[in-house]
Design brief:
It is built from eleven helices and eleven strands.
């Protein structure tokens, strides 16, 4: 079966010294570690030298990446740089977008690009979105919040409207996790904060009426929707018990939106995978692995392929639903 992984990340092999260009710091760079003249890994560090993580060549060399599935490539969320000055954020986005578009153009049967936007400046984000559309990029990835603004903020509505009108998809990825000051040990920002951030994004878009106002907007959420699927009963109960607090912008029951958005399959538990397929529907879960990072699925699609789903449902989860979300045809990859 064709496999399409909607959740993979990639970096350019060389990242400019944005601090030197813009006159202030905080940007990520790659510091390559060489063996016999060849990069064997690279450290992601900010421009003051603070270490973020080490990545292997498959994070920045397209030829080093796996070949047994189509990869939808998007930047690493730490590269969003929403905190940067608007014009600088636009430049960073353009640099990253040119890179993913070039990778996809060189190997169109292996890679599909998702762009990034300078969301801190919606007018510039719209401009970059139009440029991406002209480049043939089918969608974009954004963070679960934009400088602490949730995704229901009306300043983002023109972006959703443009995505809908351009028939482009949206991938929402957690980043800048809430409560990090209380989670300094045990890798808790990634284990606890990320699932909460994704639920925050989903709830914000539901309660804020985003899906109501933009019914054709195709949105996928990372990590199986984070903690949202396991707390949807509580969310619905809150809506019914306190509409004065929850239904202030949208009076539609949150449960009515199940099946209106996509979740990736990265849940690390076969019973949870079965549950989210039942929850949002067999047409709304698409394979996602978080490749090439350690919290991802080591061999993308393994859990789906080893599941007890029928062959028809497996095909949907492995590629069919991804194609629907991306707005692409299967023939493109054959």
């Amino acid at each position: 079966m064709l496999k399409i992984d909607i959740h993979t990340h990639i970096l350019p092999p060389e990242i400019p010294k944005f601090k030197d260009m813009f006159g202030y710091g905080g940007f990520i760079q790659l510091k390559h570690n060489h063996v016999c003249g060849k990069s064997c890994s690279a450290d992601m560090v900010n421009d003051s030298g603070k270490f973020f993580r080490t990545v292997d060549p498959n994070c920045y060399e397209p030829e080093a990446r796996i070949t047994d599935c189509v990869q939808v490539i998007s930047t690493v969320p730490v590269m969003f740089s929403y905190w940067a000055k608007p014009n600088d954020g636009e430049y960073v986005s353009q640099f990253l977008n040119d890179h993913v578009a070039e990778v996809a153009a060189k190997s169109p049967k292996r890679f599909v690009a998702l762009g990034t936007l300078p969301m801190q400046a919606p007018d510039l984000a719209l401009k970059e979105l139009q440029r991406l559309h002209k480049m043939g990029v089918p969608g974009v990835q954004i963070g679960s919040n934009i400088n602490d603004l949730n995704l229901d903020n009306k300043i983002f509505f023109p972006i959703y409207e443009a995505l809908e009108s351009l028939n482009m998809c949206l991938f929402v990825h957690p980043w800048d996790m809430m409560g990090q000051d209380k989670m300094t040990k045990y890798w808790l920002p990634w284990l606890v904060g990320m699932p909460a951030e994704t639920s925050l994004a989903i709830c914000s878009m539901i309660f804020g009426g985003v899906f109501e106002k933009f019914p054709k907007l195709r949105v996928a959420f990372a990590h199986g929707g984070g903690s949202f699927p396991m707390t949807v009963g509580r969310i619905e109960h809150g809506f019914l018990a306190r509409p004065d607090l929850c239904a202030v912008d949208n009076n539609v029951n949150p449960r009515d939106y199940l099946g209106r958005f996509y979740l990736d399959s990265l849940v690390h538990d076969s019973d949870v995978l079965k549950y989210i397929v039942k929850l949002v529907g067999e047409d709304k879960v698409a394979m996602g692995s978080d490749y090439p990072f350690p919290l991802g699925e080591l061999i993308p699609g393994t859990m789906i392929e080893s599941s007890h789903f029928s062959a028809e449902i497996k095909e949907k989860l492995l590629s069919g639903n991804a194609l629907q979300w991306l707005g692409l045809k299967k023939e493109k990859f054959l």
